Amino acid sequence: MSLPDKLPDNVRLQIDRAQRRGLAFGVVGLIATVALAFGLKDWTQFFHSYLVAYVFWMVFAMGCMAILQLHHMTGGRWGLPIRRILEAGTRTIPAMTVLFIPILFGMSRLYPWMQPDSLGDEPAGHFRRVYLEPHFFIVRAVIYFAIWNLLAALLNKWSAEQDRTGDLILKDRMSSLAAPGTILWALSWSWAMVDWVMTLEPTWYSSIYGMVFMVIACLAALSFSVVMLRMLDGYQPLHDSYDPPRLNDIGNLMLTFTLLWTYMSFAQFLIIWSGNLKQEIPWVKVRAFGPWAPVAAALLILHFFVPFFILLQRGVKRRLQRLSVLAAWMLVITLVDVYWLIVPSFQQSGPHIHLLDVFAVIGIGGVWVGVYMAQLKKMPLLPLHDPRFAGVLEHQHGD
Asked: b/e per residue, 4-43, with b = 16+ CB within 10 A?
Protein backbone atom coordinates (compact mmCIF):
# COMPACT_ATOMS: atom_id res chain seq x y z
CA MET A 1 0.00 0.00 0.00
CA SER A 2 1.53 3.33 -1.06
CA LEU A 3 1.45 6.22 1.38
CA PRO A 4 0.34 9.73 0.35
CA ASP A 5 3.04 12.40 0.63
CA LYS A 6 0.60 15.04 1.84
CA LEU A 7 -2.43 15.25 4.08
CA PRO A 8 -5.90 14.66 2.59
CA ASP A 9 -8.05 17.77 2.51
CA ASN A 10 -10.47 16.49 5.16
CA VAL A 11 -7.64 15.77 7.60
CA ARG A 12 -6.02 19.14 6.94
CA LEU A 13 -9.33 20.89 7.58
CA GLN A 14 -9.73 19.02 10.86
CA ILE A 15 -6.23 19.99 12.00
CA ASP A 16 -6.72 23.58 10.78
CA ARG A 17 -9.86 23.85 12.87
CA ALA A 18 -8.08 22.54 15.97
CA GLN A 19 -5.19 24.94 15.32
CA ARG A 20 -7.46 27.98 15.08
CA ARG A 21 -9.37 27.05 18.21
CA GLY A 22 -6.19 26.39 20.13
CA LEU A 23 -4.62 29.71 19.19
CA ALA A 24 -7.88 31.55 19.96
CA PHE A 25 -8.06 29.99 23.42
CA GLY A 26 -4.37 30.68 23.90
CA VAL A 27 -4.54 34.36 23.03
CA VAL A 28 -7.70 34.94 25.05
CA GLY A 29 -6.33 32.96 27.99
CA LEU A 30 -3.01 34.79 28.12
CA ILE A 31 -4.66 38.19 27.75
CA ALA A 32 -7.12 37.32 30.52
CA THR A 33 -4.26 36.13 32.74
CA VAL A 34 -2.31 39.36 32.34
CA ALA A 35 -5.44 41.54 32.63
CA LEU A 36 -6.54 39.79 35.82
CA ALA A 37 -3.06 40.15 37.31
CA PHE A 38 -3.19 43.88 36.55
CA GLY A 39 -6.67 44.16 38.00
CA LEU A 40 -5.85 42.30 41.19
CA LYS A 41 -2.33 43.78 41.39
CA ASP A 42 -1.17 40.33 42.37
CA TRP A 43 1.87 39.52 40.24
CA THR A 44 3.15 36.96 42.71
CA GLN A 45 0.05 34.83 42.08
CA PHE A 46 0.44 35.45 38.35
CA PHE A 47 3.94 33.98 38.31
CA HIS A 48 2.91 31.08 40.55
CA SER A 49 0.06 30.20 38.19
CA TYR A 50 2.22 30.72 35.12
CA LEU A 51 4.92 28.36 36.41
CA VAL A 52 2.42 25.56 37.09
CA ALA A 53 0.84 25.93 33.65
CA TYR A 54 4.20 26.15 31.92
CA VAL A 55 5.63 23.03 33.56
CA PHE A 56 2.43 21.10 32.79
CA TRP A 57 2.55 21.86 29.06
CA MET A 58 6.32 21.53 28.86
CA VAL A 59 5.87 17.98 30.12
CA PHE A 60 4.23 17.03 26.81
CA ALA A 61 7.00 18.42 24.63
CA MET A 62 9.67 16.72 26.73
CA GLY A 63 7.78 13.45 26.86
CA CYS A 64 7.38 13.42 23.09
CA MET A 65 11.14 13.77 22.71
CA ALA A 66 11.81 10.91 25.13
CA ILE A 67 9.34 8.47 23.56
CA LEU A 68 10.48 9.40 20.04
CA GLN A 69 14.09 8.58 20.95
CA LEU A 70 12.95 5.37 22.65
CA HIS A 71 11.29 4.38 19.37
CA HIS A 72 14.43 5.12 17.37
CA MET A 73 16.54 3.07 19.79
CA THR A 74 14.27 0.03 19.74
CA GLY A 75 12.89 0.28 16.20
CA GLY A 76 9.61 -1.20 17.41
CA ARG A 77 6.64 -1.23 15.08
CA TRP A 78 4.55 0.33 17.85
CA GLY A 79 6.22 3.60 16.87
CA LEU A 80 4.81 3.71 13.33
CA PRO A 81 1.36 5.16 14.11
CA ILE A 82 2.58 7.68 16.71
CA ARG A 83 5.96 8.75 15.32
CA ARG A 84 4.69 11.84 13.52
CA ILE A 85 2.52 12.70 16.51
CA LEU A 86 5.65 12.63 18.67
CA GLU A 87 7.77 14.54 16.16
CA ALA A 88 5.22 17.34 16.02
CA GLY A 89 5.36 17.51 19.82
CA THR A 90 9.13 18.00 19.75
CA ARG A 91 8.72 20.85 17.27
CA THR A 92 6.79 22.84 19.89
CA ILE A 93 9.98 23.27 21.91
CA PRO A 94 10.97 26.57 20.20
CA ALA A 95 7.61 28.06 21.19
CA MET A 96 8.04 26.80 24.75
CA THR A 97 11.50 28.40 24.78
CA VAL A 98 9.88 31.78 24.16
CA LEU A 99 7.15 31.13 26.73
CA PHE A 100 9.84 30.54 29.37
CA ILE A 101 10.88 34.20 29.30
CA PRO A 102 8.17 35.43 31.75
CA ILE A 103 9.53 32.99 34.34
CA LEU A 104 12.89 34.76 34.13
CA PHE A 105 11.16 38.09 34.78
CA GLY A 106 9.35 36.58 37.76
CA MET A 107 12.33 34.93 39.42
CA SER A 108 12.31 37.32 42.38
CA ARG A 109 8.64 36.49 43.09
CA LEU A 110 8.99 32.76 42.54
CA TYR A 111 12.21 31.68 44.20
CA PRO A 112 13.10 32.37 47.84
CA TRP A 113 16.79 31.84 47.04
CA MET A 114 16.79 35.19 45.29
CA GLN A 115 17.24 36.41 48.88
CA PRO A 116 20.70 35.02 49.88
CA ASP A 117 19.88 34.87 53.60
CA SER A 118 17.22 32.22 52.90
CA LEU A 119 19.81 29.53 52.09
CA GLY A 120 21.27 28.99 55.55
CA ASP A 121 24.80 29.19 56.91
CA GLU A 122 25.67 25.48 56.89
CA PRO A 123 28.10 24.12 54.22
CA ALA A 124 25.19 23.14 51.97
CA GLY A 125 23.99 26.72 52.11
CA HIS A 126 27.31 27.95 50.68
CA PHE A 127 26.95 25.53 47.76
CA ARG A 128 23.38 26.65 47.16
CA ARG A 129 24.47 30.28 46.99
CA VAL A 130 26.90 29.41 44.22
CA TYR A 131 24.58 27.07 42.34
CA LEU A 132 21.52 29.31 42.64
CA GLU A 133 23.26 32.49 41.56
CA PRO A 134 20.71 34.14 39.21
CA HIS A 135 23.05 34.48 36.23
CA PHE A 136 24.14 30.85 36.57
CA PHE A 137 20.46 29.84 36.75
CA ILE A 138 19.80 31.62 33.44
CA VAL A 139 22.92 30.12 31.81
CA ARG A 140 21.75 26.62 32.75
CA ALA A 141 18.31 27.31 31.30
CA VAL A 142 19.94 28.44 28.04
CA ILE A 143 21.94 25.20 27.95
CA TYR A 144 18.83 23.09 28.55
CA PHE A 145 16.89 24.73 25.75
CA ALA A 146 19.89 24.54 23.42
CA ILE A 147 20.09 20.77 23.97
CA TRP A 148 16.37 20.23 23.46
CA ASN A 149 16.12 22.42 20.38
CA LEU A 150 19.19 20.80 18.82
CA LEU A 151 17.92 17.25 19.39
CA ALA A 152 14.49 18.13 18.04
CA ALA A 153 15.96 19.89 15.00
CA LEU A 154 18.23 16.97 14.06
CA LEU A 155 15.62 14.24 14.52
CA ASN A 156 13.01 16.15 12.53
CA LYS A 157 15.46 17.21 9.83
CA TRP A 158 16.55 13.63 9.19
CA SER A 159 12.96 12.38 9.32
CA ALA A 160 11.93 14.90 6.66
CA GLU A 161 14.92 13.97 4.52
CA GLN A 162 13.97 10.31 4.82
CA ASP A 163 10.50 11.15 3.48
CA ARG A 164 12.01 13.09 0.61
CA THR A 165 14.89 10.85 -0.42
CA GLY A 166 14.33 7.41 1.07
CA ASP A 167 18.02 7.28 2.01
CA LEU A 168 18.53 4.22 4.25
CA ILE A 169 21.41 5.81 6.15
CA LEU A 170 19.04 8.33 7.74
CA LYS A 171 17.44 5.60 9.81
CA ASP A 172 20.88 4.77 11.22
CA ARG A 173 21.56 8.43 11.97
CA MET A 174 18.37 8.75 14.00
CA SER A 175 19.08 5.48 15.83
CA SER A 176 22.67 6.52 16.57
CA LEU A 177 21.58 9.89 17.97
CA ALA A 178 18.78 8.41 20.09
CA ALA A 179 20.97 6.73 22.74
CA PRO A 180 23.23 9.71 23.59
CA GLY A 181 20.25 11.99 22.99
CA THR A 182 18.25 10.16 25.64
CA ILE A 183 21.10 10.57 28.12
CA LEU A 184 21.28 14.29 27.35
CA TRP A 185 17.51 14.56 27.63
CA ALA A 186 17.43 12.74 30.97
CA LEU A 187 20.17 14.86 32.50
CA SER A 188 18.92 18.20 31.18
CA TRP A 189 15.21 17.61 31.92
CA SER A 190 15.85 16.32 35.45
CA TRP A 191 18.20 19.22 36.19
CA ALA A 192 15.68 21.67 34.74
CA MET A 193 13.02 20.36 37.13
CA VAL A 194 15.47 20.67 40.01
CA ASP A 195 16.20 24.27 38.99
CA TRP A 196 12.68 25.39 38.12
CA VAL A 197 10.58 23.46 40.63
CA MET A 198 12.58 21.83 43.42
CA THR A 199 14.31 25.10 44.30
CA LEU A 200 10.95 26.65 45.11
CA GLU A 201 11.90 25.19 48.52
CA PRO A 202 15.68 25.73 48.35
CA THR A 203 16.61 23.95 51.58
CA TRP A 204 14.82 20.75 50.52
CA TYR A 205 16.34 18.21 48.17
CA SER A 206 15.65 14.78 46.71
CA SER A 207 17.85 12.73 44.39
CA ILE A 208 14.74 11.16 42.81
CA TYR A 209 12.87 14.38 42.08
CA GLY A 210 14.08 14.82 38.51
CA MET A 211 13.33 11.18 37.67
CA VAL A 212 9.75 11.62 38.86
CA PHE A 213 9.27 14.34 36.25
CA MET A 214 10.97 12.18 33.62
CA VAL A 215 8.37 9.45 34.16
CA ILE A 216 5.51 11.98 34.27
CA ALA A 217 6.64 13.35 30.89
CA CYS A 218 6.86 9.93 29.24
CA LEU A 219 3.45 8.82 30.50
CA ALA A 220 1.86 12.12 29.47
CA ALA A 221 3.33 11.89 25.96
CA LEU A 222 2.10 8.31 25.46
CA SER A 223 -1.37 9.27 26.69
CA PHE A 224 -1.44 12.30 24.42
CA SER A 225 -0.37 10.15 21.45
CA VAL A 226 -3.26 7.77 22.03
CA VAL A 227 -5.71 10.69 22.22
CA MET A 228 -4.33 12.06 18.94
CA LEU A 229 -4.61 8.62 17.32
CA ARG A 230 -8.27 8.59 18.28
CA MET A 231 -8.76 12.08 16.88
CA LEU A 232 -7.17 11.08 13.53
CA ASP A 233 -8.66 7.60 13.38
CA GLY A 234 -10.62 8.40 10.22
CA TYR A 235 -7.42 8.90 8.21
CA GLN A 236 -7.23 5.54 6.47
CA PRO A 237 -3.47 4.98 6.05
CA LEU A 238 -2.96 5.94 9.69
CA HIS A 239 -5.82 3.68 10.71
CA ASP A 240 -4.19 0.79 8.86
CA SER A 241 -0.83 1.40 10.56
CA TYR A 242 -1.91 -0.06 13.87
CA ASP A 243 -3.65 -3.27 14.80
CA PRO A 244 -4.56 -4.74 18.22
CA PRO A 245 -1.00 -6.00 18.90
CA ARG A 246 0.48 -2.52 18.20
CA LEU A 247 -2.10 -0.87 20.46
CA ASN A 248 -1.35 -3.52 23.06
CA ASP A 249 2.34 -2.54 22.91
CA ILE A 250 1.50 1.13 23.48
CA GLY A 251 -0.84 0.16 26.33
CA ASN A 252 1.93 -1.91 27.89
CA LEU A 253 4.24 1.08 27.72
CA MET A 254 1.60 3.16 29.49
CA LEU A 255 1.36 0.45 32.13
CA THR A 256 5.15 0.41 32.51
CA PHE A 257 5.38 4.14 33.09
CA THR A 258 2.40 4.01 35.47
CA LEU A 259 4.32 1.47 37.56
CA LEU A 260 7.50 3.56 37.30
CA TRP A 261 5.62 6.65 38.49
CA THR A 262 4.35 4.72 41.49
CA TYR A 263 7.76 3.25 42.27
CA MET A 264 9.55 6.61 42.02
CA SER A 265 6.94 8.45 44.07
CA PHE A 266 6.83 5.81 46.80
CA ALA A 267 10.62 5.46 46.87
CA GLN A 268 10.97 9.22 47.35
CA PHE A 269 8.40 9.17 50.15
CA LEU A 270 9.96 6.13 51.85
CA ILE A 271 13.54 7.43 51.73
CA ILE A 272 12.58 10.85 53.09
CA TRP A 273 10.30 9.46 55.79
CA SER A 274 12.78 6.84 56.98
CA GLY A 275 15.63 9.36 56.95
CA ASN A 276 13.59 11.66 59.22
CA LEU A 277 15.77 14.70 58.46
CA LYS A 278 14.42 18.11 59.37
CA GLN A 279 15.35 19.53 55.94
CA GLU A 280 13.35 16.86 54.09
CA ILE A 281 10.36 15.86 56.23
CA PRO A 282 8.38 19.15 55.86
CA TRP A 283 8.04 18.65 52.08
CA VAL A 284 6.35 15.28 52.62
CA LYS A 285 4.25 16.39 55.60
CA VAL A 286 2.71 19.29 53.70
CA ARG A 287 1.71 17.13 50.72
CA ALA A 288 0.78 13.85 52.38
CA PHE A 289 -0.98 15.13 55.51
CA GLY A 290 -3.29 17.94 56.44
CA PRO A 291 -5.23 19.91 53.82
CA TRP A 292 -3.28 18.41 50.89
CA ALA A 293 -3.85 14.80 52.02
CA PRO A 294 -7.05 14.32 49.94
CA VAL A 295 -5.12 15.25 46.78
CA ALA A 296 -2.37 12.78 47.66
CA ALA A 297 -4.95 10.05 48.25
CA ALA A 298 -6.71 10.88 44.97
CA LEU A 299 -3.41 10.61 43.11
CA LEU A 300 -2.69 7.24 44.69
CA ILE A 301 -6.07 5.90 43.62
CA LEU A 302 -6.56 7.66 40.29
CA HIS A 303 -2.96 7.79 39.07
CA PHE A 304 -2.01 4.26 40.10
CA PHE A 305 -4.72 1.83 41.19
CA VAL A 306 -7.37 2.72 38.58
CA PRO A 307 -5.08 2.87 35.49
CA PHE A 308 -3.06 -0.11 36.75
CA PHE A 309 -6.02 -2.46 36.92
CA ILE A 310 -7.54 -1.10 33.71
CA LEU A 311 -4.27 -1.51 31.78
CA LEU A 312 -4.07 -5.13 32.89
CA GLN A 313 -7.10 -5.77 30.66
CA ARG A 314 -6.15 -6.81 27.13
CA GLY A 315 -9.60 -5.81 25.94
CA VAL A 316 -8.81 -2.20 26.85
CA LYS A 317 -5.29 -2.06 25.42
CA ARG A 318 -6.26 -3.63 22.10
CA ARG A 319 -9.15 -1.25 21.34
CA LEU A 320 -8.34 2.36 20.53
CA GLN A 321 -11.67 3.76 21.68
CA ARG A 322 -11.32 2.27 25.16
CA LEU A 323 -7.62 3.03 25.49
CA SER A 324 -8.16 6.64 24.42
CA VAL A 325 -10.69 7.20 27.22
CA LEU A 326 -8.11 6.11 29.79
CA ALA A 327 -5.42 8.18 28.03
CA ALA A 328 -7.59 11.30 28.22
CA TRP A 329 -8.06 10.66 31.92
CA MET A 330 -4.31 10.35 32.39
CA LEU A 331 -3.87 13.81 30.87
CA VAL A 332 -6.23 15.26 33.46
CA ILE A 333 -4.57 13.47 36.36
CA THR A 334 -1.15 14.66 35.12
CA LEU A 335 -2.31 18.24 35.66
CA VAL A 336 -3.38 17.32 39.20
CA ASP A 337 -0.01 15.67 39.79
CA VAL A 338 1.97 18.70 38.59
CA TYR A 339 -0.26 20.99 40.67
CA TRP A 340 0.29 18.83 43.77
CA LEU A 341 4.06 18.79 43.30
CA ILE A 342 4.42 22.54 42.79
CA VAL A 343 1.69 24.54 44.51
CA PRO A 344 2.24 23.42 48.14
CA SER A 345 5.66 25.09 47.91
CA PHE A 346 3.93 28.45 48.20
CA GLN A 347 0.41 27.50 49.35
CA GLN A 348 0.59 25.16 52.34
CA SER A 349 -2.93 25.86 53.56
CA GLY A 350 -4.44 23.49 51.01
CA PRO A 351 -5.60 23.51 47.39
CA HIS A 352 -7.32 26.77 46.49
CA ILE A 353 -7.66 27.05 42.72
CA HIS A 354 -7.23 30.68 41.71
CA LEU A 355 -8.80 32.09 38.57
CA LEU A 356 -5.29 32.89 37.36
CA ASP A 357 -4.49 29.16 37.56
CA VAL A 358 -7.32 28.40 35.14
CA PHE A 359 -6.50 31.18 32.68
CA ALA A 360 -2.78 30.36 32.69
CA VAL A 361 -3.41 26.69 31.86
CA ILE A 362 -5.83 27.66 29.10
CA GLY A 363 -3.55 30.39 27.74
CA ILE A 364 -0.30 28.43 27.55
CA GLY A 365 -2.20 25.28 26.58
CA GLY A 366 -4.00 27.01 23.75
CA VAL A 367 -0.74 28.33 22.34
CA TRP A 368 0.88 24.89 22.68
CA VAL A 369 -2.03 23.14 20.96
CA GLY A 370 -2.11 25.74 18.18
CA VAL A 371 1.62 25.42 17.53
CA TYR A 372 1.37 21.63 17.76
CA MET A 373 -1.40 21.44 15.16
CA ALA A 374 0.52 23.78 12.86
CA GLN A 375 3.51 21.45 13.06
CA LEU A 376 1.45 18.27 12.71
CA LYS A 377 0.18 19.25 9.27
CA LYS A 378 3.64 20.05 7.90
CA MET A 379 4.54 16.39 7.31
CA PRO A 380 2.65 13.23 6.29
CA LEU A 381 1.07 11.46 9.24
CA LEU A 382 3.16 8.35 8.53
CA PRO A 383 6.88 8.12 7.68
CA LEU A 384 7.15 7.37 3.97
CA HIS A 385 10.38 5.42 3.50
CA ASP A 386 11.46 4.02 6.85
CA PRO A 387 12.76 0.47 6.21
CA ARG A 388 11.68 -0.62 9.69
CA PHE A 389 8.06 -0.40 8.59
CA ALA A 390 8.40 -1.99 5.16
CA GLY A 391 5.44 -4.23 4.48
CA VAL A 392 3.60 -3.39 7.72
CA LEU A 393 0.60 -1.81 6.01
CA GLU A 394 0.34 -4.50 3.36
CA HIS A 395 0.52 -7.24 6.00
CA GLN A 396 -2.06 -5.67 8.29
CA HIS A 397 -4.33 -4.72 5.42
CA GLY A 398 -4.18 -8.25 4.15
CA ASP A 399 -5.11 -9.61 7.59
From this structure: eeebeeebeebbeebbeebbebbeebbebbbebbeeeeee
